[in-house]
């Protein structure tokens, strides 16, 4: 998918720097334990998805907020390297750039403390300032790591501009029905889908039933990601389609959802039909499981085309 004259994707979302450490065990209150394997890297769902779109050689603009600090410069360096548009990225001295502290135990379990920082300042005014970008976009993609009013404003603006609107409802939380009314494609994983309905994360009802309940709640089409089982598409016409995944050796699945959503948005913006776009996105999500970290794992266009069995 080359850029050419393709209409861009507008991503309204978050940026944060992740600081991770490995420990032998979680400390007790007041205790200090030694750690190792320190790592610092860019993250945030909006940012990750924008990078994935750019790696597929599709034009993308990120609407977001970062602090006027060293961590904010990490974002700017990343976007310059990857080719993500920043005309609507606001820098502020009111809050620090978003940051997450991740402590990983030997079992692989982790504990995360997140300061959203400048992401918490993103609001309707930022979306209004981004009107030229949103009006030019074929797809508007947003998530729930930013204030709900910013995500809602992005979806409203995208719908008004005639763009395809995508809500990736992560992290999982309930969403007001009026937000879903402006969503063309809702892309939860199995846990997020149940949380959206107010159910327990491990509710046993079938995925197809959960998707239908979400559609009845206002979402146009639900595309549920299901890990190694691929994706389930519950379309607006009532049809239900299973899209299989690819078998890969899983090293780290952290970036799979962002690879999926970025690829889905880019494919739709390039004119792919829904099921073909989902099939492409499922493969991208699988490829993202093969490496450690999110940004290093996001596949590039040639890698994805090779996996799809097509020439670059």
Structural commentary:
This protein is of the alpha/beta class and about 300 residues long. It has helices at about 45-55, 70-80, 125-130, 130-135, 150-160, 175-180, 190-195, 205-215, 255-270, 275-285, 300-305; strands at about 10, 15-25, 35-45, 60-65, 90, 100-105, 110-115, 140-145, 165-170, 185, 220-225, 230-235, 240-245. The strands form two sheets. Strands 5-4-1-8-9-10-11-12-13 form a nine-stranded mixed β-sheet, with helices on both faces. A four-stranded mixed β-sheet has the order 3-2-6-7. Helix 1 (about 45-55) packs across helix 9 (about 255-270) and helix 7 packs across helix 8 (about 205-215). It is globular and about 55 Å long.
Main features:
alpha/beta; single chain
Helices, strands, pairings?
Blueprint: E1 9-12, E2 16-23, E3 35-43, H1 45-55, E4 60-67, H2 70-82, E5 89-92, E6 98-104, E7 110-115, H3 124-129, H4 131-136, E8 139-143, H5 148-160, E9 164-168, H6 177-180, E10 185-186, H7 190-196, H8 207-216, E11 221-225, E12 231-234, E13 240-243, H9 256-269, H10 274-287, H11 301-307
Parallel strand pairs: 1-4, 1-8, 2-6, 4-5, 8-9, 9-10, 10-11
Antiparallel strand pairs: 2-3, 6-7, 11-12, 12-13
Helix pairs in contact: 1-9, 7-8, 9-10
Briefly summarize what is shown.
This protein has 11 helices and 13 strands. It is α/β, with parallel strands linked by helices.
